[in-house]
Write a structure and sequence with these properties.
Keywords: Heme biosynthesis, Lyase, Porphyrin biosynthesis. By secondary structure, this protein is of the alpha/beta class. It has helices at residues 15-20, 57-69, 97-108, 143-159, 174-184, 205-211, 231-243, 258-267, 278-289, 295-309, 319-328; strands spanning 31-38, 44-45, 53-55, 74-80, 113-118, 132-135, 138-141, 164-167, 193-198, 248-252, 272-276, 313-316. Helix 2 crosses helix 3 and helix 4 crosses helix 5.
């Protein structure tokens, strides 16, 4: 009988040796920095998301510049207009807030990848992601008329210089409608980053505070996915978007759906993005402020887990801090 004992701890004895065999390595280029932009001249702190603000246009450019200097190469823009209406016309206005921010950031940092969130909920007076209607006593979004509004929004964002459009409303057929509209308007080169698998999640609470997009009637459970849904539904949603021409797939939220990230990574060969959402951010921030957790270690471990599950890129409000910590180490 062999008396040889294999000792895995040998490979973990010193930091440089652990680095030598590390399988998953975070890089700031993996992060997408989200920016809320409003039409005011001053920044507004977001109470439920410590450290995050609604940016003025000038401040958004500076935030993008800071991200670039730290090695972050992509931002995603969410607009908060002064005025809203029933059909979210600010989303596809030539001088809408996201369109203005896109032009300003691209002028200041041409190499920065600017992603435009292509949705209507921040712009509608009722807070839903399209035409509001009532079906059988339930308030929901009228799917097909909304596709035209989303297509108009994507084209308007591309005209402003957005490098990628990211439809997030979970309307059936949205990727196909947007792809056709972009191609028809001369933007065949603009990729579609689809929020392919997006759940009706409790983790979005702080975002709705930040964007002023809480629904005034009903909720989004008739079009976003059920949190108790299984793998078959996730695959079906992702496959439909692939068939319609999506260039990237996304899973949102991230922490409670790491299994879904892994599922899509194994099933599809498109670039895969996940969204480390507002509630996930707020949980760590609150615990750190109370002294319950080490913020730096917790954030980097959390982002590493998402990357290990299969996410090529991570939209995260921790992006600036995480990039600084990685640079320090």
């Amino acid at each position: 009988m062999s008396t040889l004992i294999y000792r895995p701890r040998r490979l973990r004895r010193i930091a440089s040796m652990r680095a030598l065999t590390r399988e998953v390595t975070l890089n700031p280029a993996h992060f997408i920095h989200p920016l809320f932009v409003h039409e005011e001249t001053e920044d507004t702190p977001i109470k439920t998301m410590p450290g995050v603000v609604r940016h003025s246009l000038d401040s958004a450019v500076q935030a993008a510049r800071t991200a670039w200097e730290l090695g972050i190469r992509s931002v995603i823009l969410f607009g908060i207009p002064r005025e809203k209406d029933e059909v979210g016309s600010g989303a596809y206005a030539e001088h809408g807030v996201v369109q203005q921010a896109t032009r300003a950031i691209k002028a200041a940092i041409p190499e920065m990848t600017v992603i435009a969130d292509t949705c209507l909920c921040e712009y509608t007076s009722h807070g839903h992601c399209g035409h509001l209607c009532e079906v059988g006593g339930v308030w929901t979004v009228d799917n097909d008329p909304t596709l035209e509004l989303l297509a108009n929004t994507a084209v308007s964002q591309a005209q402003a210089g957005a490098d990628i459009v990211a439809p997030s409303s979970m309307m059936d057929g949205q990727v196909g409608a947007i792809r056709a509209a972009l191609d028809g308007a001369g933007f065949a080169h603009v990729p579609v980053m689809s929020y392919a698998v997006k759940y009706a999640s409790a983790y979005y609470g702080p975002f709705r505070d930040a964007a002023g997009s809480a629904p005034s009637k009903g909720d989004r459970s008739t079009y976003q996915m059920d949190a108790s849904g299984g793998h078959r539904e996730a695959l079906r949603e992702a496959r439909l978007d692939v068939e319609q021409g999506a260039d990237y797939l996304m899973v949102k939220p991230a922490l409670a759906y790491l299994d879904v990230i892994k599922l899509l990574r194994d099933e599809f060969d498109l670039p895969l993005v996940t969204y480390n959402v507002s509630g996930e951010y707020a949980l760590i921030k609150a615990a750190a402020q109370l002294g319950f957790m080490d913020e730096r270690r917790t954030v980097l471990e959390t982002l590493t887990g998402m990357h290990r599950a299969g996410a090529d890129a991570i939209i995260t409000y921790h992006a600036i801090d995480a990039a600084r910590w990685l640079k320090e180490s």
